[in-house]
User: Fold this.
Amino acid sequence: MDIPALSMALSQNKVLTDVGVALLAKNLDTMESAGEALVSVIDSSMELSVNPDLGANIDLKI
Assistant:
């Protein structure tokens, strides 16, 4: 049994696993941001569909 080769293989496997986990975490953060943006757009469009004149006019008195 070649202990040094086994050690290197396990070390490389750990590095690849760590990189994969880091990429998945970054992807999850990106998807969460995209989901929050989508919810924001849906909320604003729902508000406009219920109150289409909201924000269309500004009353000013001087």
The first helix runs from residue 3 to 50. The mean pLDDT is 86. Residues 34 and 40 are 10 Å apart (CA to CA).
